[in-house]
Amino acid sequence: MSNLNPGEEQNFRLGISLIVVLLVILLVIFGVYAFRSKQPSNNLTEQSSEKGGIFSRLFKGNSNEETSAKDSDKDGLIDQEEDKIGTDSFKADTDNDGLNDREEKLVYNTDPKVNDTDGDGIIDGDEIRDRHDPKSADPKSVWPPRPAQFTTASN
After folding, report:
1. Alpha carbon distance 76, 85 (integer Å)
2. Between 124 and which of 85, 98, 134, 148 could a Cys-Cys bridge form, CB atoms 3.0 to 4.6 Å apart?
3. Can you give the pLDDT of all 155 residues of the chain as single tens digits?
């Protein structure tokens, strides 16, 4: 360093200082990562489906409630429920029939993975729109089904 002029020596010291600071920051980040990765988790899907590498793990919240109530496609079914029934948690209408997965599962009781639940050639969304029963291939069936007290012999 004795053969450097004062300006070059100051720049050299500044460069070394920056390198030391960056190394300290990296050590802290990896230390936090190592500590967090050793924390027990009750949510196995959170562990197995973790994406994005070290930085998303470091800065992601640890709330199991937050991850368990996630609805990626905003269809009204949480991702865990969609995984359980086999629908696409990133697509609101898995079978492209015009009814979102929540409506099929909880309202109409149709199959959210099959666009024509009754197999009559008319997709479930069209049957609902036209007031036909999407679970019956009978063209005379209506939706919603009529309660027995309103059904007459002429219907």
Report:
1. 14
2. 134
3. 567 787 788 888 899 999 999 999 998 888 877 776 665 544 444 444 444 555 555 555 554 545 568 999 999 999 999 999 999 999 999 999 999 999 999 999 999 999 999 999 999 999 999 999 999 999 888 877 766 554 455 54
Q: d(Cα 22, Cα 28) in Å, to the nearest integer? A: 10
What does the domain layout of the chain look like in residue ranges?
A: 6-68, 71-155
CB 124 within 8 A of CB 97: yes
pTM above 0.85, yes or no: no
The rounded Cα 79 to chain-centroid distance in angstroms is 5
DSSP-derived secondary structure for 3-32: TS-HHHHHHHHHHHHHHHHHHHHHHHHHHH
